[in-house]
Amino acid sequence: MEKNQPRIAKLFKTALLGLATVVLATACNKTTEPPIRPDETAKYNISGQVLGNNLENSDLTALAGVTVSYKFGSVSDETTTDANGYFSFEGLVSAGRYDLTFSLGGYNTTYYSLEFPTLRGTIIDYQLKITMVKLPAGMTTVDPAAGGTVPVTGAVTAQLTVNPSTTVKDASGKDVAGEINITATPVNDIVTGQAESTTGLAVLQFLPEGYRFSPALNLAVQNPMTNHYFGNTFLQYYDAGTGMWNTMSQPVTFANGAYNTTIDHFSIYKIGFSNGRSEVSSESRSIDVIDGVIDNTGKLEPVPVIFAKVQRLTGYVYTTPIADALQAAGITSDVDELTAEIQKVIKASNQGVDAVDQMTTVESEIPVNISVPANTKLTMTAQQVVTTVAYTFNIMSTSGSSYSVVVNTLVPANSVSVTTDFTPGDTHTVPGGDGTGGGGSN
Q: Most buried residue, 64, 332, 347, 351, by most Cβ within 10 Å?
Protein backbone atom coordinates (compact mmCIF):
# COMPACT_ATOMS: atom_id res chain seq x y z
CA MET A 1 0.00 0.00 0.00
CA GLU A 2 1.40 3.41 -0.92
CA LYS A 3 2.83 5.47 1.89
CA ASN A 4 0.31 7.65 3.68
CA GLN A 5 -2.45 6.09 1.58
CA PRO A 6 -5.59 5.28 3.64
CA ARG A 7 -6.32 1.57 3.98
CA ILE A 8 -8.67 0.78 1.12
CA ALA A 9 -9.56 -2.79 1.98
CA LYS A 10 -9.63 -3.84 5.59
CA LEU A 11 -9.10 -7.24 7.10
CA PHE A 12 -12.45 -8.33 8.55
CA LYS A 13 -11.75 -11.76 9.98
CA THR A 14 -9.32 -14.61 9.69
CA ALA A 15 -10.73 -18.01 10.62
CA LEU A 16 -8.49 -20.96 11.35
CA LEU A 17 -9.50 -24.61 11.48
CA GLY A 18 -7.49 -27.13 13.48
CA LEU A 19 -3.89 -27.08 12.34
CA ALA A 20 -4.49 -24.71 9.44
CA THR A 21 -2.66 -21.42 9.46
CA VAL A 22 -3.02 -18.35 7.34
CA VAL A 23 0.19 -16.56 6.46
CA LEU A 24 -0.94 -13.24 5.07
CA ALA A 25 1.12 -10.95 2.96
CA THR A 26 -1.32 -8.40 1.60
CA ALA A 27 -0.80 -5.64 -0.83
CA CYS A 28 -3.67 -3.23 -1.02
CA ASN A 29 -3.04 -1.19 -4.14
CA LYS A 30 -5.01 1.64 -5.64
CA THR A 31 -4.65 1.80 -9.39
CA THR A 32 -6.20 3.61 -12.32
CA GLU A 33 -5.24 1.04 -14.95
CA PRO A 34 -7.44 0.44 -16.86
CA PRO A 35 -8.96 3.92 -16.60
CA ILE A 36 -12.12 4.34 -14.56
CA ARG A 37 -14.27 7.45 -14.33
CA PRO A 38 -14.30 9.31 -11.01
CA ASP A 39 -18.04 8.80 -10.63
CA GLU A 40 -17.94 5.13 -11.56
CA THR A 41 -18.41 2.44 -8.88
CA ALA A 42 -15.09 1.08 -7.68
CA LYS A 43 -13.90 -2.31 -8.88
CA TYR A 44 -12.28 -4.83 -6.57
CA ASN A 45 -9.80 -7.61 -7.35
CA ILE A 46 -8.79 -10.44 -5.02
CA SER A 47 -5.73 -12.47 -5.99
CA GLY A 48 -2.88 -14.36 -4.41
CA GLN A 49 -0.91 -17.56 -4.07
CA VAL A 50 -1.58 -20.72 -2.03
CA LEU A 51 1.35 -22.63 -0.53
CA GLY A 52 1.46 -26.00 1.23
CA ASN A 53 3.23 -26.98 4.45
CA ASN A 54 3.71 -30.69 5.19
CA LEU A 55 4.18 -30.28 8.99
CA GLU A 56 7.55 -32.08 8.80
CA ASN A 57 9.63 -29.06 7.84
CA SER A 58 9.29 -25.39 7.05
CA ASP A 59 9.53 -25.81 3.28
CA LEU A 60 6.56 -24.35 1.42
CA THR A 61 5.40 -25.63 -1.95
CA ALA A 62 3.01 -23.97 -4.36
CA LEU A 63 -0.28 -25.87 -4.40
CA ALA A 64 -2.01 -26.42 -7.72
CA GLY A 65 -5.67 -27.39 -7.96
CA VAL A 66 -6.80 -25.73 -4.74
CA THR A 67 -10.48 -24.83 -4.90
CA VAL A 68 -10.80 -21.17 -3.95
CA SER A 69 -14.34 -19.88 -3.44
CA TYR A 70 -15.94 -16.77 -2.06
CA LYS A 71 -19.36 -15.86 -0.74
CA PHE A 72 -20.77 -12.34 -0.77
CA GLY A 73 -24.25 -12.52 0.64
CA SER A 74 -26.16 -14.76 -1.77
CA VAL A 75 -23.50 -14.38 -4.48
CA SER A 76 -20.71 -16.91 -4.78
CA ASP A 77 -18.01 -17.96 -7.21
CA GLU A 78 -15.05 -20.29 -7.28
CA THR A 79 -11.84 -20.92 -9.17
CA THR A 80 -8.79 -23.18 -8.85
CA THR A 81 -5.13 -22.36 -8.41
CA ASP A 82 -2.81 -22.78 -11.37
CA ALA A 83 0.40 -24.80 -11.51
CA ASN A 84 2.18 -22.15 -9.43
CA GLY A 85 -0.58 -21.84 -6.84
CA TYR A 86 -1.99 -18.53 -8.09
CA PHE A 87 -5.66 -17.53 -8.24
CA SER A 88 -7.69 -14.37 -8.85
CA PHE A 89 -11.20 -12.92 -8.77
CA GLU A 90 -11.32 -9.77 -10.87
CA GLY A 91 -13.84 -7.06 -11.56
CA LEU A 92 -15.89 -7.40 -8.37
CA VAL A 93 -18.21 -4.41 -8.13
CA SER A 94 -19.78 -4.74 -4.68
CA ALA A 95 -18.27 -3.37 -1.49
CA GLY A 96 -18.67 -5.37 1.70
CA ARG A 97 -17.58 -8.62 3.26
CA TYR A 98 -16.16 -11.48 1.19
CA ASP A 99 -15.71 -14.89 2.85
CA LEU A 100 -13.06 -17.00 1.12
CA THR A 101 -12.56 -20.75 1.48
CA PHE A 102 -9.47 -22.69 0.35
CA SER A 103 -9.87 -26.47 0.07
CA LEU A 104 -7.76 -29.30 -1.30
CA GLY A 105 -7.89 -33.01 -0.51
CA GLY A 106 -5.28 -33.96 2.08
CA TYR A 107 -4.97 -30.41 3.44
CA ASN A 108 -6.78 -28.62 6.21
CA THR A 109 -9.49 -26.32 4.84
CA THR A 110 -8.53 -22.68 5.37
CA TYR A 111 -10.73 -19.59 5.62
CA TYR A 112 -10.16 -15.90 5.14
CA SER A 113 -12.58 -12.98 5.30
CA LEU A 114 -12.09 -9.40 4.17
CA GLU A 115 -14.24 -6.33 3.71
CA PHE A 116 -14.04 -3.69 1.00
CA PRO A 117 -15.22 -0.15 1.76
CA THR A 118 -17.60 1.67 -0.56
CA LEU A 119 -15.56 3.76 -3.02
CA ARG A 120 -15.89 5.28 -6.46
CA GLY A 121 -13.54 6.01 -9.30
CA THR A 122 -10.83 3.53 -8.34
CA ILE A 123 -9.71 -0.10 -8.68
CA ILE A 124 -8.64 -1.95 -5.56
CA ASP A 125 -6.30 -4.97 -5.71
CA TYR A 126 -6.18 -7.15 -2.58
CA GLN A 127 -3.38 -9.72 -2.66
CA LEU A 128 -3.11 -12.73 -0.35
CA LYS A 129 -0.56 -15.39 0.43
CA ILE A 130 -2.19 -18.39 2.11
CA THR A 131 -0.44 -21.39 3.69
CA MET A 132 -2.43 -24.63 3.96
CA VAL A 133 -1.18 -27.36 6.30
CA LYS A 134 -1.14 -30.96 5.16
CA LEU A 135 -3.47 -33.17 7.17
CA PRO A 136 -2.06 -36.15 9.07
CA ALA A 137 -2.53 -39.49 7.34
CA GLY A 138 -6.16 -40.57 7.35
CA MET A 139 -7.57 -37.18 8.38
CA THR A 140 -10.38 -35.47 6.48
CA THR A 141 -12.17 -32.22 7.26
CA VAL A 142 -15.97 -32.45 7.10
CA ASP A 143 -18.75 -29.97 7.77
CA PRO A 144 -21.56 -32.09 9.31
CA ALA A 145 -24.12 -29.45 8.39
CA ALA A 146 -23.28 -29.77 4.70
CA GLY A 147 -22.36 -33.46 4.78
CA GLY A 148 -19.36 -35.10 3.19
CA THR A 149 -17.34 -38.27 2.79
CA VAL A 150 -14.28 -39.60 4.57
CA PRO A 151 -12.12 -42.02 2.56
CA VAL A 152 -10.24 -44.87 4.20
CA THR A 153 -7.18 -46.20 2.39
CA GLY A 154 -4.39 -48.63 3.15
CA ALA A 155 -4.87 -52.26 4.10
CA VAL A 156 -8.63 -51.68 3.78
CA THR A 157 -10.55 -49.48 1.34
CA ALA A 158 -13.70 -47.96 2.79
CA GLN A 159 -15.78 -44.80 2.85
CA LEU A 160 -17.61 -43.08 5.69
CA THR A 161 -20.49 -40.81 4.66
CA VAL A 162 -21.75 -37.94 6.79
CA ASN A 163 -25.29 -36.99 5.79
CA PRO A 164 -26.27 -33.30 5.55
CA SER A 165 -27.72 -31.72 8.71
CA THR A 166 -25.89 -34.20 10.95
CA THR A 167 -25.55 -33.12 14.58
CA VAL A 168 -22.42 -33.96 16.56
CA LYS A 169 -21.70 -34.30 20.27
CA ASP A 170 -18.30 -34.89 21.83
CA ALA A 171 -17.46 -37.59 24.36
CA SER A 172 -18.78 -35.42 27.21
CA GLY A 173 -22.12 -34.87 25.46
CA LYS A 174 -21.50 -31.27 24.42
CA ASP A 175 -22.61 -30.07 21.00
CA VAL A 176 -19.85 -29.70 18.41
CA ALA A 177 -20.41 -26.88 15.92
CA GLY A 178 -18.67 -26.24 12.62
CA GLU A 179 -16.25 -28.41 10.72
CA ILE A 180 -14.49 -31.34 12.36
CA ASN A 181 -11.32 -33.23 11.53
CA ILE A 182 -12.13 -36.92 11.19
CA THR A 183 -9.37 -39.51 11.20
CA ALA A 184 -10.26 -42.89 9.71
CA THR A 185 -7.53 -45.52 9.41
CA PRO A 186 -7.18 -49.31 9.26
CA VAL A 187 -5.61 -50.70 12.45
CA ASN A 188 -4.40 -54.06 13.68
CA ASP A 189 -6.94 -56.36 15.24
CA ILE A 190 -7.17 -56.46 19.02
CA VAL A 191 -7.12 -60.13 19.95
CA THR A 192 -9.23 -60.88 23.01
CA GLY A 193 -9.72 -64.63 22.71
CA GLN A 194 -13.49 -64.29 22.31
CA ALA A 195 -14.76 -67.13 20.14
CA GLU A 196 -17.22 -64.80 18.40
CA SER A 197 -14.55 -62.18 17.75
CA THR A 198 -13.12 -62.41 14.27
CA THR A 199 -11.00 -60.32 11.94
CA GLY A 200 -11.91 -61.38 8.46
CA LEU A 201 -12.76 -58.15 6.72
CA ALA A 202 -11.77 -54.86 8.34
CA VAL A 203 -10.71 -53.27 11.60
CA LEU A 204 -11.03 -49.47 11.47
CA GLN A 205 -10.41 -46.72 13.99
CA PHE A 206 -12.37 -43.46 13.87
CA LEU A 207 -11.31 -40.34 15.75
CA PRO A 208 -12.05 -38.15 17.70
CA GLU A 209 -12.85 -40.94 20.14
CA GLY A 210 -16.35 -40.82 21.58
CA TYR A 211 -17.91 -38.39 19.10
CA ARG A 212 -21.59 -39.19 18.52
CA PHE A 213 -23.61 -38.49 15.40
CA SER A 214 -27.29 -38.16 14.57
CA PRO A 215 -28.30 -39.52 12.15
CA ALA A 216 -25.83 -42.39 12.11
CA LEU A 217 -23.01 -42.35 9.55
CA ASN A 218 -22.96 -44.76 6.62
CA LEU A 219 -19.93 -47.02 6.40
CA ALA A 220 -19.09 -48.97 3.23
CA VAL A 221 -16.11 -51.37 3.24
CA GLN A 222 -15.00 -52.54 -0.18
CA ASN A 223 -14.99 -56.28 -0.79
CA PRO A 224 -11.45 -57.53 -1.52
CA MET A 225 -12.83 -60.31 -3.73
CA THR A 226 -14.27 -60.22 -7.23
CA ASN A 227 -16.76 -63.09 -7.38
CA HIS A 228 -17.50 -63.95 -3.75
CA TYR A 229 -18.30 -62.39 -0.41
CA PHE A 230 -18.90 -63.65 3.12
CA GLY A 231 -22.37 -64.16 4.52
CA ASN A 232 -23.37 -63.95 8.19
CA THR A 233 -21.49 -60.68 8.65
CA PHE A 234 -21.75 -58.47 11.74
CA LEU A 235 -20.39 -55.25 13.22
CA GLN A 236 -18.44 -55.03 16.49
CA TYR A 237 -16.88 -52.15 18.39
CA TYR A 238 -14.07 -52.37 20.92
CA ASP A 239 -14.83 -51.32 24.49
CA ALA A 240 -11.52 -50.21 26.00
CA GLY A 241 -13.08 -50.22 29.46
CA THR A 242 -13.86 -53.94 29.41
CA GLY A 243 -11.21 -54.97 26.89
CA MET A 244 -13.88 -56.81 24.90
CA TRP A 245 -15.54 -56.59 21.51
CA ASN A 246 -19.26 -55.83 21.58
CA THR A 247 -21.51 -56.98 18.74
CA MET A 248 -23.80 -54.24 17.44
CA SER A 249 -27.45 -54.68 16.56
CA GLN A 250 -27.36 -52.89 13.21
CA PRO A 251 -26.98 -55.28 10.27
CA VAL A 252 -24.15 -55.51 7.78
CA THR A 253 -25.43 -55.98 4.24
CA PHE A 254 -23.67 -56.54 0.94
CA ALA A 255 -24.42 -54.36 -2.08
CA ASN A 256 -22.50 -52.65 -4.89
CA GLY A 257 -19.32 -54.55 -4.10
CA ALA A 258 -19.18 -53.41 -0.48
CA TYR A 259 -20.20 -54.40 3.03
CA ASN A 260 -22.55 -51.68 4.27
CA THR A 261 -23.55 -50.68 7.79
CA THR A 262 -23.94 -47.62 10.03
CA ILE A 263 -22.10 -46.27 13.07
CA ASP A 264 -23.36 -43.61 15.47
CA HIS A 265 -20.22 -43.03 17.52
CA PHE A 266 -16.47 -43.11 16.97
CA SER A 267 -14.47 -46.06 18.28
CA ILE A 268 -12.55 -49.01 16.85
CA TYR A 269 -14.88 -51.06 14.68
CA LYS A 270 -14.62 -54.50 13.19
CA ILE A 271 -16.64 -56.00 10.37
CA GLY A 272 -16.39 -59.75 10.74
CA PHE A 273 -18.31 -62.84 9.82
CA SER A 274 -19.45 -65.90 11.71
CA ASN A 275 -16.85 -68.64 11.81
CA GLY A 276 -19.19 -71.37 13.08
CA ARG A 277 -16.50 -72.63 15.45
CA SER A 278 -17.24 -76.00 17.04
CA GLU A 279 -15.28 -78.76 18.76
CA VAL A 280 -15.93 -81.92 16.78
CA SER A 281 -13.94 -84.57 18.67
CA SER A 282 -11.05 -85.07 21.07
CA GLU A 283 -8.40 -87.71 21.62
CA SER A 284 -5.85 -88.21 24.35
CA ARG A 285 -2.26 -88.62 23.19
CA SER A 286 0.68 -89.95 25.18
CA ILE A 287 3.57 -87.54 25.51
CA ASP A 288 7.07 -88.13 26.82
CA VAL A 289 8.01 -87.53 30.45
CA ILE A 290 11.65 -86.61 30.96
CA ASP A 291 13.17 -88.69 33.79
CA GLY A 292 9.76 -90.22 34.30
CA VAL A 293 11.10 -93.12 36.39
CA ILE A 294 12.44 -92.38 39.84
CA ASP A 295 13.79 -95.54 41.45
CA ASN A 296 13.93 -95.16 45.21
CA THR A 297 14.12 -98.89 45.89
CA GLY A 298 16.74 -99.93 48.36
CA LYS A 299 16.64 -96.47 49.95
CA LEU A 300 15.60 -95.66 53.50
CA GLU A 301 14.43 -92.07 52.91
CA PRO A 302 11.56 -90.74 50.76
CA VAL A 303 12.32 -88.53 47.75
CA PRO A 304 10.25 -85.40 47.07
CA VAL A 305 9.13 -84.73 43.49
CA ILE A 306 7.90 -81.19 42.78
CA PHE A 307 7.54 -81.21 38.99
CA ALA A 308 7.18 -83.65 36.16
CA LYS A 309 9.06 -82.51 33.06
CA VAL A 310 7.10 -83.34 29.92
CA GLN A 311 7.42 -82.83 26.17
CA ARG A 312 4.19 -80.91 25.63
CA LEU A 313 2.65 -80.64 22.16
CA THR A 314 2.28 -77.10 20.87
CA GLY A 315 0.97 -75.40 17.74
CA TYR A 316 -2.23 -76.10 15.81
CA VAL A 317 -2.44 -77.49 12.28
CA TYR A 318 -4.94 -77.69 9.45
CA THR A 319 -6.05 -81.22 8.74
CA THR A 320 -6.43 -80.23 5.08
CA PRO A 321 -5.29 -77.03 3.33
CA ILE A 322 -7.88 -74.24 3.16
CA ALA A 323 -7.61 -74.17 -0.62
CA ASP A 324 -8.62 -77.85 -0.71
CA ALA A 325 -11.62 -77.14 1.54
CA LEU A 326 -12.72 -74.34 -0.81
CA GLN A 327 -12.38 -76.58 -3.82
CA ALA A 328 -14.30 -79.36 -2.08
CA ALA A 329 -17.16 -76.89 -1.55
CA GLY A 330 -17.15 -75.98 -5.25
CA ILE A 331 -15.27 -72.66 -5.14
CA THR A 332 -12.60 -72.26 -7.81
CA SER A 333 -12.06 -68.46 -8.01
CA ASP A 334 -10.93 -65.90 -5.42
CA VAL A 335 -9.15 -68.81 -3.72
CA ASP A 336 -6.11 -66.82 -2.59
CA GLU A 337 -8.22 -63.96 -1.22
CA LEU A 338 -10.64 -66.28 0.56
CA THR A 339 -7.77 -68.30 2.00
CA ALA A 340 -6.17 -65.15 3.41
CA GLU A 341 -9.42 -64.01 5.04
CA ILE A 342 -10.14 -67.44 6.55
CA GLN A 343 -6.58 -67.67 7.88
CA LYS A 344 -7.02 -64.32 9.65
CA VAL A 345 -10.23 -65.52 11.30
CA ILE A 346 -8.74 -68.78 12.54
CA LYS A 347 -5.62 -66.95 13.72
CA ALA A 348 -7.75 -64.53 15.74
CA SER A 349 -9.60 -67.47 17.27
CA ASN A 350 -6.25 -68.91 18.40
CA GLN A 351 -4.98 -65.90 20.34
CA GLY A 352 -3.39 -64.34 17.26
CA VAL A 353 -1.12 -67.33 16.59
CA ASP A 354 -0.59 -68.68 13.06
CA ALA A 355 -1.06 -72.35 12.21
CA VAL A 356 2.05 -74.52 11.80
CA ASP A 357 2.86 -77.27 9.33
CA GLN A 358 3.14 -79.82 12.14
CA MET A 359 2.96 -79.79 15.90
CA THR A 360 6.21 -79.52 17.80
CA THR A 361 7.11 -80.22 21.41
CA VAL A 362 8.29 -77.92 24.15
CA GLU A 363 9.63 -78.88 27.55
CA SER A 364 7.22 -77.96 30.33
CA GLU A 365 7.19 -78.49 34.07
CA ILE A 366 3.91 -79.84 35.42
CA PRO A 367 3.46 -79.49 39.21
CA VAL A 368 2.94 -82.87 40.96
CA ASN A 369 4.15 -82.20 44.54
CA ILE A 370 4.46 -85.82 45.63
CA SER A 371 6.88 -87.89 47.66
CA VAL A 372 8.35 -91.20 46.57
CA PRO A 373 8.36 -93.42 49.68
CA ALA A 374 11.43 -95.33 50.75
CA ASN A 375 12.07 -98.53 48.82
CA THR A 376 9.58 -97.50 46.10
CA LYS A 377 9.83 -96.88 42.37
CA LEU A 378 7.80 -94.07 40.79
CA THR A 379 6.77 -94.23 37.14
CA MET A 380 5.15 -91.12 35.63
CA THR A 381 3.25 -91.04 32.34
CA ALA A 382 1.54 -88.06 30.71
CA GLN A 383 -1.40 -87.48 28.41
CA GLN A 384 -2.41 -84.42 26.39
CA VAL A 385 -5.78 -83.90 24.73
CA VAL A 386 -5.84 -82.91 21.06
CA THR A 387 -9.16 -81.53 19.81
CA THR A 388 -10.49 -81.31 16.27
CA VAL A 389 -11.94 -77.81 15.92
CA ALA A 390 -14.09 -77.11 12.87
CA TYR A 391 -14.81 -73.69 11.35
CA THR A 392 -17.79 -73.35 9.03
CA PHE A 393 -17.98 -70.35 6.70
CA ASN A 394 -20.94 -69.18 4.68
CA ILE A 395 -19.60 -67.84 1.38
CA MET A 396 -21.80 -66.28 -1.27
CA SER A 397 -21.10 -65.78 -4.96
CA THR A 398 -22.07 -62.53 -6.65
CA SER A 399 -24.18 -64.63 -9.01
CA GLY A 400 -26.33 -65.81 -6.08
CA SER A 401 -24.86 -69.20 -5.16
CA SER A 402 -24.23 -70.13 -1.53
CA TYR A 403 -21.42 -72.36 -0.26
CA SER A 404 -20.68 -73.92 3.11
CA VAL A 405 -16.94 -74.30 3.61
CA VAL A 406 -15.65 -76.40 6.52
CA VAL A 407 -12.04 -76.05 7.66
CA ASN A 408 -10.76 -78.45 10.35
CA THR A 409 -7.86 -77.85 12.69
CA LEU A 410 -6.12 -79.98 15.31
CA VAL A 411 -5.48 -78.05 18.51
CA PRO A 412 -3.51 -79.46 21.48
CA ALA A 413 -4.77 -78.51 24.92
CA ASN A 414 -2.60 -76.29 27.06
CA SER A 415 -3.06 -78.59 30.04
CA VAL A 416 -1.37 -81.95 30.57
CA SER A 417 -2.42 -84.77 32.90
CA VAL A 418 0.27 -86.73 34.70
CA THR A 419 -0.35 -90.22 36.08
CA THR A 420 1.86 -91.60 38.85
CA ASP A 421 2.41 -95.31 39.54
CA PHE A 422 4.23 -96.45 42.70
CA THR A 423 5.84 -99.89 42.79
CA PRO A 424 7.14 -101.10 46.22
CA GLY A 425 10.57 -102.77 46.27
CA ASP A 426 11.41 -106.11 47.92
CA THR A 427 11.98 -105.76 51.65
CA HIS A 428 15.22 -107.73 51.49
CA THR A 429 16.76 -105.02 49.34
CA VAL A 430 16.52 -102.49 52.16
CA PRO A 431 19.55 -102.37 54.45
CA GLY A 432 18.49 -103.73 57.86
CA GLY A 433 15.32 -105.28 56.52
CA ASP A 434 14.20 -108.90 56.71
CA GLY A 435 16.87 -111.31 55.50
CA THR A 436 19.44 -108.58 55.11
CA GLY A 437 20.83 -108.42 58.66
CA GLY A 438 23.90 -110.35 57.62
CA GLY A 439 25.96 -112.47 59.99
CA GLY A 440 26.59 -116.12 59.72
CA SER A 441 25.79 -119.19 61.80
CA ASN A 442 27.71 -120.13 64.80
A: 347
